[in-house]
Amino acid sequence: KSASSSQQSANNPVSTIPELDLSKKAFKEAVVRHLHSTLGTDENKANNHAWFKAASAAIQELVLNRLRKTQKSHYLNDTRAVHYFSAEFLMGRLLSNNMHNFGLFETAQAALQELGVDLTDVLEEEPDMALGNGGLGRLAACYIDSLATMDYPAIGYGIHYEYGLFRQEIKNGAQIERPDNWRDYGNPWEICRPESIQEISLYGYVETKYGKKGQIQKEWHPGAIVKGLPWDIPVVGYGGKTVNVLRLWESQASGYFNWDVFNAGGYVDAERENVEAETISKVLYPNDETEAGKELRLIQQYFFSACSLKDIIRRYKRAHGDDWSRFTDQVVIQLNDTHPAIAIPELMRILVDRAELDWDSAWEICQNTFAYTNHTLLPEALEKWPARMIEKVLPRHLEIIYEINHRFLSEVEKKWPGDNLMKAKLSIIEESNEKMVRMGNLSVIGAFAVNGVAEIHSRLVKQNLFPEFDALYPGKLTNVTNGITPRRWLKACNPLLSDLISKKIGNDWPLHLSKLDDLSTLADNKTFQNAFMRVKQKNKDALAKEIKQLTGISVDTKAIFDIQIKRLHEYKRQHLNLLHILALYRRLLENPDYEMHPRVFIFGAKAAPGYALAKTIIYAINKVADKINADVRVNQKIKVVFLPNYRVSLAEKMIPAADVSQQISTAGKEASGTGNMKLALNGALTIGTLDGANIEIAEEVGDDNIFIFGNTVEQVEALTARGYNPYDYYYNNKEIKAVLDWLDSDYFTPGQPGELSPLKQSMLDGGDPYLVLADFESYSEANIRLDEAYKDKTRWAKMAILNTAKMGKFTSDRSIEDYVSKIWKLEKCGIE
Ligand code: KOT
After folding, report:
1. Distance 604 CA to ligand 1 centre (A)
2. Would you list the DSSP string of 672-707?
3. Residue nearest to atom 18 of ligand 1 (CA)
4. Torsion angle, CA of 474/477/481/487, rounded to 10 degrees?
5. Catalytic pick among 149, 674, 689, 804
6. What is the distance between the alpha carbons of residues 476 and 339, in angstroms, rounded to a whole number?
């Protein structure tokens, strides 16, 4: 760059750059320029955080350049786009990701080194964007990465939570929740767009009027208006060409007040209104797969869905005016579970009440716009809202839902005349004590496609959850198996393995993950095995340092690193893992020569703050860890580590170091899982049940390269049908009895007997709803097979390599191609 242009830029740090200069020199200059002109500091004073800000600003210049080009290209080509509606996007950190996607990581590293700064330390300054709970939110993040990478026009729509998922601290073994202040020092990526503010309505009442032709018209007189302020996060595709956006809405008071409604109740002070409006996007609900049923949550859902719809319609009208005939050619909306399902009646409201389309035309548009992804079969996670609550918050929407239902039930009557049971099952309204609106049924009826997230899950969606809908709408229910982005989950998080792979098979595997299969031919090659396992060892050494730093626990890096990382939930059965650890501990105490390779059991998990048993399980893991890690009789053989505050950036450190991946949910309960894919991709061997995507992983790697155990879905169904009694296992298996009784003692909680008893109770008098005891023996045997396999270094290396080699299917690029061909029907649109 010439001196004059850099001087010009110094005045206006985010000024336009004629063409992208991706050289080290240019990057260095940009960082220093931002250090001076954006941050008001200099090279001598800057701390790591300032370097992080400056480096991000330097990258953001490139990002914004490509964002503008992408948006121009989409506008000129008037492209059809997918609009991914999700209450959660678990983005993690973006600096390293954006550097990698621009192919600038090494350049940046070298540039900063010349400035005397270590990029690794700089990257650690970035707070995670934790605007999600777990699998569902992280999936959304992987999908927008793939969409940008593959040049598909796409927008992510969600909520700009002020506080993301809580930060977890562990005090005396127990989880404490602390607020997640992710924006405290500003976020270098987000762009505030006041020019695109939207207003949405809440509360109030509906007036019925008669139009000129005597037709009935409805007018909603809202009780409150809330502003939605959009923040755009650029989403950089790999290769740095397409940059899409994630648009997140922040709620603000509108200043507008409808006195019609409130004058009857008297004066409501303005400040309370502001606070209430701003509360909407204040905090992410931390419940993973449990339904909270809170009014504020419903308002959050409507808030972001309605703002997003208005945004889409504004953009559509700019190109097509009031002609709705092309709407469904241009717009497809993917509902990430039912959280945004209220968008369906909202679009009907806009079309019928506002655009004055007749019902049938409006419904046709609606039904051709939405597609719905189901992520769970757990009954407690299937959203149902009290009709009374919807009536209060969204009175017009309840009317529309009733009308949709009324018309739908006459379709059902045509197909199954006189079958009232069928109507009761399929109705959007559950006629229980309190009338409830079933958001799943609304979504299936309002969408043109419905998908589950792994083969077995989609089969169960058809067979168990929505069999009648499957009969009514043949072909509507389908499968798209989940995937993960290999850019973040291999290339960026595991540079040593990535370099090794690239040396062997070339460097285009991040875009064509099936190429990894070329490694299969090297699985028996001693030199490659050694290289592969040397990388694993280095990653384990690095994680051991992290463990020491975070917990003070020293672990043997020659031990098996056995990892279970995921939200804490009974169905995921962290307590099965724990019971097995207790069993090993007992075996070692009874027989100090008990044969096993040393193993470190590593956990990471957050429990929903109100989920008492999940918190007890965390407490139990920590208490057992304290005891075992301090017990010199066994602690050369087993160690237990609970790493606090599990999140995306911690996952990126743990996954490359895993020997073993624990995927041990009760068969039929884990819709897919995606951590299973990340771990296997990084060469960990799965010990798992035939559940979710584990089944497809097993198909890919072959039965010799995975440790499958436990009851299958069919066996679980049969066992439950016969009447499962956990006491049968308790009394028939001495080891099960002994470890469960251990929990009643004060062995792990000195002076506090009974602290862990609720855990035992859940598996006995509680009925053991997730069949922990039924699977224990099979799990124990699988662990013995695993231990045997590890003894044979060559065999293990081969299995690990094959796991990496066979993960091609699970790139999120493949999932996105499946969505595109089966559901979205998009065309690529790159920048010139
Ligand atoms: C949460 C609340 C209501 C409904 C569903 C959920 C949900 C489901 N949250 N996360 N999931 C997970 O989604 C992942 C992505 O599809 C799956 O891999 C995983 O099995 C689900 O548990």
Report:
1. 17
2. --SHHHHHHHTTPEEEE-S-TTHHHHHHHH-GGGSE
3. 673
4. 120
5. 674
6. 20
Mutating to test ligand 1, I would choose from 287, 298, 337, 375 the residue with most ligand atoms within 8 A of its C-beta, which is 375
Tokens, residue 88? 């959660």
DSSP class of residue 514?
G
310 is catalytic: no
Phi, psi of 311 (to 5 degrees): -60, -45
Residue 337 is inside which H or E element, if any?
A: none
Cβ atoms of 303 and 250 within 8 Å: the answer is: no
ipTM exceeding cut-off 0.90 for this assembly: yes
* Whether 375 is catalytic: yes
Q: E-strand spans in 449-607? A: 449-452, 477-479, 560-565, 599-604
Q: What are phi and psi of 207, to 5 degrees?
A: -105, 135
Six-digit token string for 134? 């777990």
Say what angle helices 359-367 and 395-415 make with each other, to 10 degrees: 80
Over the stretch 366-380, which tens digit does the pLDDT of each residue have?
999 999 999 999 999
- List, for residues 156-201, the tens digit of each pLDDT value: 999 999 999 999 999 999 999 999 999 999 999 999 999 999 999 9
Residue 492 Cα to ligand 1 midpoint, Å, equals: 25
Ligand 1 atom nearest to CA at 134: 10
Which of these, 675, 629, 620, lies nearest to 652 by C-alpha position?
675
Whether this prediction's pTM lies above 0.90 is answered by yes
For the chain, domains (ranges, CATH) are: 1-77+94-125 (no CATH), 83-93+128-166+191-480 (3.40.50.2000), 486-814 (3.40.50.2000)
491 is catalytic: no
The string of DSSP letters for 220-235 reads EE-SEEEEEEEEEEEE
**Catalytic-residue membership of 567:** yes
- Kindly give the residue spans of alpha helices, DSSP state H, lying in 259-394: 259-262, 270-279, 295-320, 327-330, 343-349, 359-367, 387-393
